[in-house]
Structure formats: C-alpha cells, structure tokens
Amino acid sequence: MNVSLSELANRVQGVVVGNAQISISALSPIDDVLVGSLVFADGEHNLRRAEQSKAAAILVNQQMTSSQKSVIQVANPLKTFIQLLNFFYPVSKPKASIHPTAVIAEDVTLGNNISIGPFVIIESSTTIGDNCVIKGHVSIGNEVTIGHDTVIHPQVTIYAQTRIGSRVSIHASSVIGCDGFGYTFVDDQHLKIPHVGHVVIGDDVEIGANTVIDRATLGATVIGEGTKIDNLVQIAHSVKLGKHNILCAFTGIAGSSVSGNHVIFAANVGVSDHVQIDDGVILAARAGVPPKKHLKKGNVYLGNPARPKEKALEQELAVTRIPMMRKKIKGLSEKISLLSERLAQIEAEK
Amino acid sequence: MNVSLSELANRVQGVVVGNAQISISALSPIDDVLVGSLVFADGEHNLRRAEQSKAAAILVNQQMTSSQKSVIQVANPLKTFIQLLNFFYPVSKPKASIHPTAVIAEDVTLGNNISIGPFVIIESSTTIGDNCVIKGHVSIGNEVTIGHDTVIHPQVTIYAQTRIGSRVSIHASSVIGCDGFGYTFVDDQHLKIPHVGHVVIGDDVEIGANTVIDRATLGATVIGEGTKIDNLVQIAHSVKLGKHNILCAFTGIAGSSVSGNHVIFAANVGVSDHVQIDDGVILAARAGVPPKKHLKKGNVYLGNPARPKEKALEQELAVTRIPMMRKKIKGLSEKISLLSERLAQIEAEK
Amino acid sequence: MNVSLSELANRVQGVVVGNAQISISALSPIDDVLVGSLVFADGEHNLRRAEQSKAAAILVNQQMTSSQKSVIQVANPLKTFIQLLNFFYPVSKPKASIHPTAVIAEDVTLGNNISIGPFVIIESSTTIGDNCVIKGHVSIGNEVTIGHDTVIHPQVTIYAQTRIGSRVSIHASSVIGCDGFGYTFVDDQHLKIPHVGHVVIGDDVEIGANTVIDRATLGATVIGEGTKIDNLVQIAHSVKLGKHNILCAFTGIAGSSVSGNHVIFAANVGVSDHVQIDDGVILAARAGVPPKKHLKKGNVYLGNPARPKEKALEQELAVTRIPMMRKKIKGLSEKISLLSERLAQIEAEK
Fold first, then answer.
1. pLDDT digits over C287-308, tens only?
2. Beta strand pairing status for A246-247 and A228-229?
3. Which of A130, A240, A285, B214 has CB 3.0 to 4.6 Å from A222, enough for a Cys bridge?
4. If you measure CA to CA, which chain B residue comes closest to A342?
5. How many Cβ contacts (< 8 angstroms) between chains B and C?
6. Which phi and psi (to 5°) does residue C341 adopt?
7. What is the ipTM of this complex?
C-alpha cells in the first residue's frame, strides 16, 4: 500500500506541515522504524528518535512540529494512529461457515453469519448471536448465551450457564465459569462448597489468554461492560467488577470483592476477599489489599499492604532515612558524653 | 422446587424457630438474595443483612435467632448449606458413553460407566477407572493411570506416566506432568536436564483451571490426598505436597520443596526450592520463602522474606514508627543544644 | 537395563574409585533413591545422604570420594548425569505421520519426517520444517513459520504470522502471538489499539506450559535464541528478550522492555514497560522494576522497587535495627534528663 501524506491527513482530519506529496507505505513503532513509514511520536524524546530514523514522516500532536521531517498534526495522535492501523492493516474476518467437524447439540440456537472452526464443541440449549466467530477447539457448555459480534479464540473453555455479551473478545486457553475455590474444613478434610452460580460478562469486554474467571457459589460473578482483562488474571467466585476497569497480568481478585467503574489494577495486584473498591481507584503494580478493606474513590494505592500513595511513599522514604538516623543518634550520644564530662569537671571543681 | 422450611429442617437435623410452613424456592448468597429463598448468615452483621433482604428464612447456628424472620438452627451452618446446595442443585453427571470422535489407543483399559467427550485423545497403555468423566478436548498421554470417579474438564493435558487417584477433579486447561524447568549452564548455553520422572496425584485432590504441575526430574512430583489447588498455581519438579493442603491462586512451589499435612498457602505465595514445611503451617498471602528454609510446625508466616507472624508484624510496625523517631531525635538534639548553652554560661561565669 | 559401573564410567570419561563391577540398574534423585541405582551427589551433605541410601554407587566430582560406596568421578557431574539420563531413559520420538483427523489448509508447506497428532489445526500459508512434532489439539494460524526439529505439545495456540525457530519446545496450553494489552482512554471508554505485529522465537528456545507471549503492536515481540521460559510466564507486546535468558514461573515483562544476553529472571519477577536490562543482570525472586529503568550490566537486583543487591540488603538490615534504635533514643533521653537535673542543681547552687 502506498498513500500520500495529504491523503492520510485528510482521512484523519490532520494538518500536514512539510511535503504533503510524500508516499507512505507502512506504519512503524518508534523502536523499529521501517523505511518510508509514518511513525507516531509522543513527546520530545520520541520526536528526536523519529527525526533520526528512516521514517518518511511523523504523526504528532497539534503543538509539535519538526525541522527535519514532514509531520501530520492531529488533536489526539494515539487515537489517530489506531484509525490508521485499522486502515493499513484491516482485520480479515473469517467467512461465515460452520466447520463440519464441529460437534453442536441439536437444540443450540445459532444467529446469522456465524463462523465456527474445526473441533468446536457446543453443548445443549446454548445460544450464539449474529456475526460471532468461534475459533477451533473452543468448548462451550450447556445453557450458555453469547451476544452478537463476539470472538472466542482457540482452546477457550466456557462452562455451562455462562452469559457473555456482544462485541466481547476472549483470547486462547482462557477459562470462564469453572468452580470457585471454596471449601470448609470438616472432620479433618476440606469439604467442597458446590458452585451452582454462573458468570456474566458484559458487552465490549476483552479477556486475554490463559485467564480464569470462576463461577459464583450462588448468583453471579460479574464483569462489567467495557472492562479489559489481560493474560493470566484470576477472578474468583462471586466477584463483581464494574464498568471500564483495567486488569493487568497476574492480577488476582479474591471471592466476593466488588469494584466500581473505571478502576485500574496494574500488574500483579492482589485483592483479598470481600474488598470494596470505589470508582476511579488506581492500584499500582504489586499492591496487595487485605480482606474487607474499603478503597476510597479516586485514590491511588501502593504497596503490600496497600496504602494511599502519599502514605506508602512516605513510608518507603522513611526506610531510606534509617542510616542517617543512626548517624544522628551516634552524634547525639557523643555530644551527651562530652556534656557529661564538662559537667563532671564543673562538679569536681566545686 | 418448593419445599417447606420444616421439611428442609428435618433433612438437615435442624430446628425451626418461627413459621415452619414457609415455602422455600431457592438458596441465596448473602449479597444477592432472591425472593422466597433461604439465605445462610454467619455472624451478626450478615444476620442483619439477611433480615433486611427478600429472603423467606435464614440458616443460622444454634446460638442465633431472629426477631424478623424464621430461621433454621443447625450445629454447622456452612456444612448444612453445602448439603442443601446439593439438594436444590443436584449435579447432573453426563451419561456413560464414548463419543465417536475420541481417538483412543487400542490397548487403553477403560472401566465401567465412563463418559468420554468429543475429540478426546487417550494414548497407549493408559488405564481409566470406573465412573470417570473425561470432557471434550482432553489429551491423555501414554501409560497414565486414573482411579475411579475422577472428572477431567475440557482442554486438560495429562502427560505420559502420570498417576491420578480417585474422586480427583481437574479443571479446564490445566497441565499435569510437563517437563520441569531444569538446566545447567555449560559452554555458554543452558543445557536441558531431561525429566524422566512423573507426577502422582492422590485421591480426592482438586485442581483448578490453568494450573501446572511439572513431572519430576527422576522419581515423582507428589500431590497428597485431599489437597486442593486453585487456578493458576505452579508446582515445580519433584515437589512433594502432603495431605489436605490448600494452595490459593498464583502460588508457586519451586523444585524439591516438601510440605507436611494441612498446610495452607494463601494467594501468591512463593516457595523457593528445597524448602521444608511442617504440618499445619500457614503462609499468608504474598509470603516469599527463600531456598532451603525450614518452616516450623503450626506457625504462621508473613512477608518477603517470610517470617513468623509476630516478627513480621513487629517489623511492619517498626517502620511506621520512623517518623515519630525522627521527631524524637530532633527534640533530643534541641535539648542537647540548650544544655550545652546552659553549660557554656556556667563555664563562662566561672 | 543393567550396566556395570566400569561401562558407565567409560561412557562418560569418568574414573571408578571402588568396585568397577557393580551393576547399575537405574539413576536416582538424592531424595528418593532406588536399590541398585547410581545417584548424583553435589556437595558433602548429599554425599553423606547418598552413602546412607540404597544406592549402589555415587556420581561425584573429581575432588570427592567415599569410604562407604563406589563412586564415578567426573569433571562436571551434572553434565554427566544429563548424559546418563539420556542413556538410561532415551526419549522415544513419535513416528512420522499425519493423523487423518488433522485439519490442514491446502497451501500449508510441510517438511519431511513430521509427526502431526489428532485434531491439529494448521491454517493457510503456514510452513513447518523437517522432523517437527505437533501433538494433538494444537492450533496454528495463518502464515506461521516453524523451523526444523521443533516440538509443540498439546493444546498450544500459535496465532497468525508467528515465526518459530528450530529445536524449539513449547509445552501444553501456552499461547503465542495473541493481542497485546493496549488501549487508550477516549470518550470514557478504553479504545483498543490494534495489534498488527507478530512474535519471533529464536532457535533452541524452550517455553513451559500455560505461558503467554503477546504479538507486537507493530513489528515484533522477540525471544532470543537459547532463552528458556518456565510455566505461567507473561511476555507483553513488543518486548525483546536477548539470548540465553532464564525466566522462571510467574515472571511478567511489560510492553517494550528489552533484555540483553544471559539475563536471569527468578520467579515472580515483574518488569514494567520500557525497561532496559543489560547483559548478565540477575533479578532475584519477586523483584519489581519500575517503568523506564535501566538495569546495569552484571548487577544483581532485589526487592520492590528493585535495587542493586547491596543497597537492598542494607535497607532490609536497616529495618531490623529499628527496635535497637528506639532503645538507644530512650537511653539518650534519660541521660539528657539526668544531665539537665545535674545542671539545674549547679544553677540552683550558684
């Protein structure tokens, strides 16, 4: 594909500063720039890198320009870059078809324009909406419902009774709706608590690979609409996540914890059971939240146990001051000895 | 289903306080109560919530009662709730049958009353006991033995020579018996140590989804009977876990470590290699145990590096005292200056 | 198999000290010794254990000997043990054959002597080299290339455009090339950044079970040759790992971070985005590296946030000194009170 800079600028309501006739053949990331490509530069540092690269032109915000290369200026360069990614590298949706090897129960309800790959299993009483793509080796249990335009990648397992919204994406080998981890200790053994609840996943949710979402003991484990979940995340039984949350890899949320909307869990955050997290809370990487805590609206939490950012940083800083404090204590001790000697002298002279 | 409170009470040797004729149509969790349901309340706080809910009646212990709603009193309400869950929501076992798409080696030995789903692979010389359920897409290698009444969920991989007990449950996409992670650095490269051992899983073990248990280098990696393992857990080569352990999500046990019976690993516990853990030890969430440590019987360990609870809490508390200590040091310094001035005055007056 | 100690010694260029005619029937790990076996003992402690075991003989280095049992002395006992493991327990490669249930696109290019298991899916324009083993249920997307002598274990998913080298091994349920976790927050929602890059895996790489490697946003996520990755590891979009790295379980590397050669990530290491790690760096278990850090050549890093070992240990030690410091402060305070009293006495006497 070869497109002139002016055509690209028109496509994204941008302004060319420089040579509008330059031909662009690809998009590039800043750390691996292709000859003749358009590269997106956020910030001065990356602008310098872009200028010294083989890029043909640079996508920047409306405040930035370049004396070295032609640029397209736009209001939101990352949003524009996404538009251009979709233009240069359009996703090819598989053709609607049901592979003959798929094992689909007779009473399954399938919408229009669905693609089902080889070796898919769909069990009894399940419903799948229009335009869904179910890739090979996916296993879907009884009484599952899936909305429209949802994509399920290979090897995913969806246990019985799970309810999945529209425009959801679930990556390979993730598991939705397996039993929660609940036992009670009776007669020297761990007696299993049956898990007869289910999982509800809202519209526009995305779930990474090898992630696990447990069914509720009773009722539902809920993932709110628009929430994005990374690879290797664990959501325990009866958790209720709000809308538009972000959960990065290795985050684990224990049983019955609840989050509001727009909560961010950075990587490897551990939330214990029965925690309540208000709207807009940010949990920094590796934060650990003890059971039954209430994290307050809009706060940033750090550390294990997690504390509001200011307190956590204060404490971190405090530890670095210990060597200085030891020196001071030693200094004071010496001063006191000197004072004591001077005093003894005076007392002796009396 | 509609059952009178008195019938339920009889079924569980409980005592009704209130109206025994009330009709119960479901069980409810405390955070999502259905109209007309029986809800289980542990503790006063949840009793109040239950009283203000749409529940028809409440399951409580023998010390609790309610002025608002009818209750069933029993000795162990959680154990009773499990009984009632099994009564209201009986698990329907799949019918015994072998799906025609399954690829089963000729010399495999199958017990009676076995259910094998679509696209299952069972390789040579493997033996599976009576009443087992092998769901779709499961892959079982050569010379595996599985006891009776064991359930293997979809997409599980069981490598060759694994030995699995009876009444075991393994959830979706877990991997049992892959090579351990062992190399030795020779000639500037990591030379692989072959893993010719296997995995032995005792009776009544449960394993969550996306968990991995490595085979031993030589000999066996062992999971003791009754031990329960959550999702996304890692058990390395040659580990030997005792009986009735609990391992929560993201716990990792490194090579050759050994646990006794009734050990609890809370979430995201990391145990290094060659650690010895005595009976009844509890490792709190996010504890990290350095190599070759010996954790003593009945102790609770916290922190990274893990320390006995008292020491760990003492240290955590110590850090919070630093600001106060800095103030005190400053105060002492000022007092010393004053003393020094007073002393200088006296010395000058001599 | 029964082999004399002298024959084994010849096979590995070792020297027998003791009875060279002893017959060896197996190899044993030090913690589970079989009668009549050869056991490998590293260090004095394990030599004592080996002497008291049922082992017939002991493999040791050239400095060690035993008054209790016959030994084979070699220059590098672990390397020799690997040789002997391969001799006693040779790996049987599956016969070259393509299972009739496999669904392979017409334009796939297959080398010679390939083994493809049941229910494998290989999509369009993919190329697989000589002597590869693709086990059952593996899913391989479009335009993938795989070198020769590579083994892909069951249930692995390889997304489109992934490039895999020769002599690579990928264990069960791992996922290579799924979308990275990238969004930008626009109009109160998380807008997905398309991931049109791919993954490149070098020769001689090994990847454990349930591990995930994300494709790059644009360009490539790269795993350098000879790098070994454990189970349950997360490699994010556009990461570039050098050669001969070691990544233990639960390690996560966030977007665009780069490592040199011979870097070691112990278990549960978390590396944030845009981190640069020089050759030979060692990250201790549970180290956490903040964004954009530069870890310097040959250093060992500990803690969260990760610090050079000396600093981290100094800080850890500092915390343990707080109780002692509090005592000292109290002592100084008392001394000051006494001085003040003595001074007051003198002042009063003036």
1. 999 999 999 998 999 999 999 9
2. parallel
3. A240
4. B343
5. 186
6. -65, -45
7. 0.94
